[in-house]
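Why do we care about 3D structure at all? Because function follows from shape, and shape follows, mostly, from sequence. That is the central idea of this module. The next example makes it concrete: a single protein chain, its amino acid sequence, and then its structure expressed as C-alpha coordinates.
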Amino acid sequence: MEHVFRCGGEYTQVVQQRFQAQFPESKVPHRNAEQLIQKFKETGSMCDTTRSGRPSILTEKKMLDISDRMLQSPKKSIRKLSQQVGVSNGTAHTALKKRLCLHPYKITAVHELKPGDSAKRVAYCKWFLDFLDREGEDILDITCFTDEAYFHLLGYTNSQNSRVWCAHNPHAFHKSPLHDEKIGVWVGMLHRRVVRPIFFSETLNSQRYCDTIVYPFIAELKEDEIDKAYFQQDGAAAHTAHMSMALLDNVFADRIISETIWPPRSPDLSPPDFFL
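And the structure:
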Protein backbone atom coordinates (compact mmCIF):
# COMPACT_ATOMS: atom_id res chain seq x y z
CA MET A 1 0.00 0.00 0.00
CA GLU A 2 2.95 2.33 0.71
CA HIS A 3 4.29 1.83 -2.84
CA VAL A 4 0.82 2.45 -4.31
CA PHE A 5 0.28 5.77 -2.55
CA ARG A 6 3.80 6.91 -3.33
CA CYS A 7 2.77 6.48 -6.99
CA GLY A 8 -0.40 8.53 -6.79
CA GLY A 9 -2.70 5.84 -5.45
CA GLU A 10 -2.57 3.69 -8.60
CA TYR A 11 -1.33 0.10 -8.88
CA THR A 12 1.07 0.69 -11.76
CA GLN A 13 3.91 -1.29 -13.30
CA VAL A 14 6.37 0.88 -11.31
CA VAL A 15 4.69 -0.31 -8.11
CA GLN A 16 5.12 -3.91 -9.21
CA GLN A 17 8.82 -3.35 -9.97
CA ARG A 18 9.44 -1.67 -6.61
CA PHE A 19 7.58 -4.46 -4.82
CA GLN A 20 9.66 -7.11 -6.59
CA ALA A 21 12.89 -5.27 -5.76
CA GLN A 22 12.02 -4.99 -2.07
CA PHE A 23 10.50 -8.49 -1.74
CA PRO A 24 12.36 -10.65 -4.30
CA GLU A 25 11.15 -13.93 -2.80
CA SER A 26 7.47 -12.95 -2.75
CA LYS A 27 4.97 -13.22 -5.58
CA VAL A 28 3.91 -9.89 -7.11
CA PRO A 29 0.27 -9.14 -6.16
CA HIS A 30 -2.31 -9.77 -8.88
CA ARG A 31 -3.94 -6.88 -10.67
CA ASN A 32 -7.07 -7.57 -8.62
CA ALA A 33 -5.15 -5.92 -5.77
CA GLU A 34 -6.86 -2.75 -7.04
CA GLN A 35 -9.95 -3.90 -5.11
CA LEU A 36 -7.83 -3.97 -1.97
CA ILE A 37 -6.60 -0.45 -2.71
CA GLN A 38 -10.17 0.79 -3.15
CA LYS A 39 -11.15 -0.82 0.18
CA PHE A 40 -8.26 0.98 1.91
CA LYS A 41 -9.31 4.30 0.40
CA GLU A 42 -12.89 3.88 1.63
CA THR A 43 -12.32 2.34 5.06
CA GLY A 44 -8.70 3.08 5.98
CA SER A 45 -8.19 -0.64 6.57
CA MET A 46 -7.48 -3.79 4.56
CA CYS A 47 -9.46 -6.02 6.95
CA ASP A 48 -12.89 -7.36 5.99
CA THR A 49 -15.76 -5.58 7.67
CA THR A 50 -18.10 -7.53 9.91
CA ARG A 51 -20.88 -8.94 7.77
CA SER A 52 -24.45 -8.65 8.83
CA GLY A 53 -26.59 -11.77 8.53
CA ARG A 54 -28.88 -14.15 10.30
CA PRO A 55 -27.32 -15.37 13.54
CA SER A 56 -26.64 -19.11 13.72
CA ILE A 57 -29.38 -21.11 15.41
CA LEU A 58 -26.81 -23.73 16.43
CA THR A 59 -26.16 -22.20 19.82
CA GLU A 60 -24.01 -23.89 22.44
CA LYS A 61 -27.14 -25.11 24.20
CA LYS A 62 -28.57 -26.51 20.96
CA MET A 63 -25.29 -28.29 20.15
CA LEU A 64 -25.19 -29.89 23.62
CA ASP A 65 -28.75 -31.11 23.07
CA ILE A 66 -27.86 -32.61 19.67
CA SER A 67 -24.71 -34.22 21.05
CA ASP A 68 -26.58 -35.80 23.99
CA ARG A 69 -29.31 -37.17 21.73
CA MET A 70 -26.80 -38.76 19.33
CA LEU A 71 -24.84 -40.29 22.22
CA GLN A 72 -28.03 -41.88 23.55
CA SER A 73 -29.23 -43.03 20.12
CA PRO A 74 -26.39 -43.14 17.53
CA LYS A 75 -28.64 -44.86 14.94
CA LYS A 76 -31.05 -41.91 14.88
CA SER A 77 -31.84 -40.53 11.43
CA ILE A 78 -31.20 -36.87 10.54
CA ARG A 79 -34.92 -36.39 9.93
CA LYS A 80 -35.79 -37.69 13.40
CA LEU A 81 -33.06 -35.56 15.00
CA SER A 82 -34.25 -32.41 13.23
CA GLN A 83 -37.81 -33.00 14.47
CA GLN A 84 -36.67 -33.52 18.06
CA VAL A 85 -34.44 -30.45 18.33
CA GLY A 86 -36.56 -28.15 16.13
CA VAL A 87 -34.13 -27.41 13.27
CA SER A 88 -34.12 -28.11 9.55
CA ASN A 89 -32.64 -31.27 8.06
CA GLY A 90 -29.78 -29.25 6.57
CA THR A 91 -28.97 -27.59 9.91
CA ALA A 92 -29.03 -30.97 11.67
CA HIS A 93 -26.71 -32.36 8.98
CA THR A 94 -24.31 -29.40 9.45
CA ALA A 95 -24.32 -29.89 13.22
CA LEU A 96 -23.42 -33.58 12.89
CA LYS A 97 -20.85 -33.33 10.10
CA LYS A 98 -19.12 -29.98 10.63
CA ARG A 99 -19.62 -29.15 14.29
CA LEU A 100 -19.52 -32.60 15.92
CA CYS A 101 -17.37 -34.23 13.18
CA LEU A 102 -19.59 -37.32 13.08
CA HIS A 103 -19.77 -39.59 10.02
CA PRO A 104 -22.33 -42.23 9.00
CA TYR A 105 -20.96 -45.78 8.96
CA LYS A 106 -22.58 -48.93 7.60
CA ILE A 107 -23.68 -51.64 10.01
CA THR A 108 -22.26 -55.14 9.49
CA ALA A 109 -24.73 -58.00 9.99
CA VAL A 110 -23.27 -60.98 11.84
CA HIS A 111 -24.79 -64.22 13.05
CA GLU A 112 -26.12 -64.01 16.59
CA LEU A 113 -24.40 -66.04 19.28
CA LYS A 114 -25.97 -66.74 22.65
CA PRO A 115 -24.24 -67.26 26.02
CA GLY A 116 -22.49 -70.61 25.99
CA ASP A 117 -22.33 -70.87 22.20
CA SER A 118 -18.67 -69.89 22.01
CA ALA A 119 -17.63 -72.67 24.40
CA LYS A 120 -19.60 -75.21 22.37
CA ARG A 121 -17.97 -74.03 19.14
CA VAL A 122 -14.49 -74.36 20.64
CA ALA A 123 -15.38 -77.82 21.99
CA TYR A 124 -16.53 -78.92 18.52
CA CYS A 125 -13.33 -77.63 16.89
CA LYS A 126 -11.23 -79.56 19.41
CA TRP A 127 -13.33 -82.68 18.80
CA PHE A 128 -12.89 -82.30 15.05
CA LEU A 129 -9.10 -81.97 15.32
CA ASP A 130 -8.99 -85.09 17.50
CA PHE A 131 -11.26 -86.81 14.95
CA LEU A 132 -8.78 -86.04 12.16
CA ASP A 133 -5.82 -87.20 14.28
CA ARG A 134 -7.62 -90.45 15.07
CA GLU A 135 -9.02 -91.27 11.62
CA GLY A 136 -6.53 -89.48 9.36
CA GLU A 137 -7.35 -86.70 6.88
CA ASP A 138 -8.53 -89.26 4.30
CA ILE A 139 -11.67 -89.66 6.40
CA LEU A 140 -12.86 -86.35 4.91
CA ASP A 141 -13.33 -88.19 1.60
CA ILE A 142 -16.25 -90.03 3.20
CA THR A 143 -17.44 -87.41 5.73
CA CYS A 144 -20.62 -85.86 4.40
CA PHE A 145 -21.53 -82.32 5.51
CA THR A 146 -25.13 -81.42 4.71
CA ASP A 147 -27.38 -78.38 4.74
CA GLU A 148 -30.30 -76.82 2.95
CA ALA A 149 -30.93 -73.28 1.73
CA TYR A 150 -33.96 -71.41 0.37
CA PHE A 151 -33.93 -69.39 -2.84
CA HIS A 152 -36.62 -66.76 -3.47
CA LEU A 153 -37.92 -67.04 -7.03
CA LEU A 154 -39.54 -63.64 -7.54
CA GLY A 155 -36.54 -61.52 -6.66
CA TYR A 156 -36.84 -58.22 -4.81
CA THR A 157 -38.09 -54.86 -6.11
CA ASN A 158 -36.78 -51.72 -4.41
CA SER A 159 -39.43 -49.06 -5.05
CA GLN A 160 -36.95 -46.33 -4.10
CA ASN A 161 -34.60 -47.23 -6.96
CA SER A 162 -36.97 -48.63 -9.63
CA ARG A 163 -38.16 -46.05 -12.18
CA VAL A 164 -40.36 -46.08 -15.30
CA TRP A 165 -39.47 -43.46 -17.93
CA CYS A 166 -42.63 -42.15 -19.57
CA ALA A 167 -44.13 -38.87 -20.83
CA HIS A 168 -47.06 -39.30 -18.43
CA ASN A 169 -47.29 -41.16 -15.14
CA PRO A 170 -48.26 -44.75 -16.06
CA HIS A 171 -49.03 -45.59 -12.40
CA ALA A 172 -46.98 -48.77 -12.75
CA PHE A 173 -47.35 -51.43 -10.06
CA HIS A 174 -45.28 -54.42 -9.05
CA LYS A 175 -47.54 -57.20 -7.86
CA SER A 176 -46.21 -59.56 -5.22
CA PRO A 177 -48.00 -62.52 -3.61
CA LEU A 178 -48.87 -62.59 0.07
CA HIS A 179 -46.38 -65.42 0.60
CA ASP A 180 -43.13 -65.17 -1.34
CA GLU A 181 -42.54 -68.10 -3.70
CA LYS A 182 -39.35 -69.96 -2.84
CA ILE A 183 -37.68 -73.31 -3.35
CA GLY A 184 -35.48 -75.27 -0.96
CA VAL A 185 -32.25 -76.99 -2.01
CA TRP A 186 -30.49 -79.66 0.05
CA VAL A 187 -26.98 -80.86 -0.71
CA GLY A 188 -24.41 -83.22 0.77
CA MET A 189 -20.74 -82.32 0.42
CA LEU A 190 -17.81 -84.70 0.78
CA HIS A 191 -14.18 -83.91 0.08
CA ARG A 192 -14.24 -85.98 -3.11
CA ARG A 193 -17.68 -85.10 -4.47
CA VAL A 194 -20.98 -83.29 -4.02
CA VAL A 195 -24.01 -85.52 -3.53
CA ARG A 196 -26.85 -84.39 -5.81
CA PRO A 197 -28.84 -81.28 -4.97
CA ILE A 198 -32.37 -82.24 -3.85
CA PHE A 199 -35.10 -79.67 -4.46
CA PHE A 200 -38.22 -79.32 -2.31
CA SER A 201 -41.01 -76.76 -2.16
CA GLU A 202 -42.72 -77.56 1.15
CA THR A 203 -41.56 -76.74 4.66
CA LEU A 204 -39.58 -79.64 6.04
CA ASN A 205 -40.87 -81.77 8.90
CA SER A 206 -39.40 -85.08 10.00
CA GLN A 207 -41.55 -87.12 7.58
CA ARG A 208 -40.69 -84.95 4.56
CA TYR A 209 -37.04 -84.84 5.61
CA CYS A 210 -36.88 -88.64 5.60
CA ASP A 211 -38.92 -89.18 2.44
CA THR A 212 -37.64 -86.27 0.33
CA ILE A 213 -34.02 -86.06 1.43
CA VAL A 214 -32.62 -88.89 3.56
CA TYR A 215 -33.88 -91.87 1.52
CA PRO A 216 -32.77 -90.40 -1.87
CA PHE A 217 -29.43 -89.43 -0.29
CA ILE A 218 -28.79 -92.94 1.05
CA ALA A 219 -29.61 -94.37 -2.39
CA GLU A 220 -26.78 -92.21 -3.85
CA LEU A 221 -24.10 -93.48 -1.46
CA LYS A 222 -21.38 -95.85 -2.57
CA GLU A 223 -20.66 -99.09 -0.71
CA ASP A 224 -17.63 -97.79 1.21
CA GLU A 225 -19.58 -94.66 2.16
CA ILE A 226 -22.42 -96.68 3.64
CA ASP A 227 -19.96 -98.78 5.63
CA LYS A 228 -17.61 -96.05 6.87
CA ALA A 229 -19.03 -92.60 6.11
CA TYR A 230 -19.74 -89.97 8.76
CA PHE A 231 -22.90 -87.89 8.38
CA GLN A 232 -23.16 -84.28 9.61
CA GLN A 233 -26.35 -82.25 10.02
CA ASP A 234 -27.28 -79.25 12.12
CA GLY A 235 -29.77 -79.24 14.97
CA ALA A 236 -32.91 -78.24 13.03
CA ALA A 237 -36.09 -79.75 14.45
CA ALA A 238 -36.80 -81.85 11.33
CA HIS A 239 -33.23 -83.24 11.44
CA THR A 240 -33.22 -84.28 15.09
CA ALA A 241 -36.78 -85.60 15.42
CA HIS A 242 -37.08 -89.21 16.63
CA MET A 243 -38.09 -90.52 13.18
CA SER A 244 -35.16 -88.82 11.42
CA MET A 245 -32.56 -89.90 13.99
CA ALA A 246 -33.82 -93.49 14.00
CA LEU A 247 -33.43 -93.69 10.20
CA LEU A 248 -29.94 -92.15 10.27
CA ASP A 249 -28.86 -94.33 13.21
CA ASN A 250 -29.94 -97.42 11.28
CA VAL A 251 -27.50 -96.50 8.48
CA PHE A 252 -24.64 -94.61 10.16
CA ALA A 253 -24.85 -95.90 13.76
CA ASP A 254 -22.31 -93.95 15.86
CA ARG A 255 -20.99 -92.06 12.82
CA ILE A 256 -23.48 -89.18 13.10
CA ILE A 257 -22.30 -85.61 13.75
CA SER A 258 -25.49 -83.94 14.94
CA GLU A 259 -26.91 -81.93 17.83
CA THR A 260 -24.90 -83.71 20.56
CA ILE A 261 -21.64 -82.66 18.83
CA TRP A 262 -22.53 -79.94 16.34
CA PRO A 263 -22.63 -76.46 17.96
CA PRO A 264 -25.80 -74.38 17.46
CA ARG A 265 -25.80 -71.21 15.33
CA SER A 266 -22.57 -72.12 13.52
CA PRO A 267 -23.05 -71.85 9.74
CA ASP A 268 -19.42 -70.72 9.38
CA LEU A 269 -18.25 -74.20 10.48
CA SER A 270 -20.20 -76.03 7.76
CA PRO A 271 -18.57 -76.32 4.29
CA PRO A 272 -21.92 -76.04 2.42
CA ASP A 273 -22.73 -72.76 4.21
CA PHE A 274 -19.21 -71.39 4.34
CA PHE A 275 -18.02 -72.40 0.87
CA LEU A 276 -20.59 -74.00 -1.42
